[in-house]
Write a structure and sequence with these properties.
single chain; alpha/beta; Rossmann fold; 7-stranded parallel sheet; 34% helix
Length: 246
């Protein structure tokens, strides 16, 4: 009996593709030859999203588990994800700014930042990590931040943001341990992009010489991702590929 051994199309998936860095990841990945499709995911399709069959956009709320289950099914029909990037995050919003002192912390700020920076990536991992291949290299990575490092925290402040990113780092570590049991070649990592010229960092990046354009930041992080090995799974790395303390 003959069996169809045609390989399934390889997908790169960017959750949060409507954001500045997420969109830059899509643009960089579309230039890499290894992907049949680069799939953008977000709550709404950007009006200027390219009309390109290699760049499908799937609408899903990453905090809605029913929507994520539907997203996983849709991705499985498109092909085999080999790279899943979670390019989401929240630092500030109207009425919500990083705290300079503990007296400024509120239940609202803690809840909102934990929801976006920790709960959302965890749910995406829950639903999409099982799509990674079992017998070959695959990567799922989330954008963290150096300020989420407990060992590197010498200044304090930004309490809710720091804590939410530290929680994300622990969730990534836990996901990596689980993945290793059934997908020993899979890599799950937290990534620090540095300061990027996006709305997230704009109020805090004035005058800094270390601000990178979204395309430059995406290109550097993709180089880091492509160098990661299975032994690096569960790690926290900056945009130069250097480990960041937990």
């Amino acid at each position: 009996m003959a069996f169809d051994t045609e390989p399934r199309p390889r997908l790169a998936v960017v959750v949060g593709a409507g954001g500045g860095l997420g969109r830059a990841f899509v643009e960089e990945l579309r230039g890499e030859p290894g992907w049949a499709k680069v799939v953008g995911v977000g709550r709404r399709r950007p009006e200027d999203w390219p009309d390109d069959p290699r760049l499908p956009f799937l609408v899903a709320d990453p905090l809605d588990e029913d929507a994520l289950a539907d997203l996983a099914s849709a991705l499985a029909k498109l092909g085999a994800p080999g790279l899943i990037l979670i390019a989401t995050g929240l630092l500030h919003a109207p009425g919500l700014m990083p705290e300079k002192a503990m007296k400024a912390v509120t239940a609202t700020s803690l809840s909102r930042l934990f929801e976006v920076n920790a709960v959302l990536p965890a749910l995406v991992c829950k639903h999409l990590a099982p799509l990674l291949p079992r017998d070959e290299r695959g990567v799922i990575a989330a954008l963290s931040a150096r300020v989420g490092s407990i060992g590197d925290n010498r200044l304090g402040g930004w309490h809710a943001y720091r804590a939410s990113k530290a929680a994300l780092n622990m969730l990534i570590r836990c996901q990596a341990i689980e993945l290793s049991r059934e997908r020993p070649l899979a890599i799950c990592a937290a990534l620090h992009p540095g300061t990027v010229d996006t709305p997230l960092s704009a109020p805090f990046a004035r005058g800094s010489r270390a601000v990178a354009s979204p395309r430059a930041a995406a290109a550097k992080l993709l180089k880091v991702i492509h160098r990661l090995e299975a032994a690096d799974s569960g790690g926290f790395f900056d945009h130069e590929g250097e480990p960041v303390p937990w």
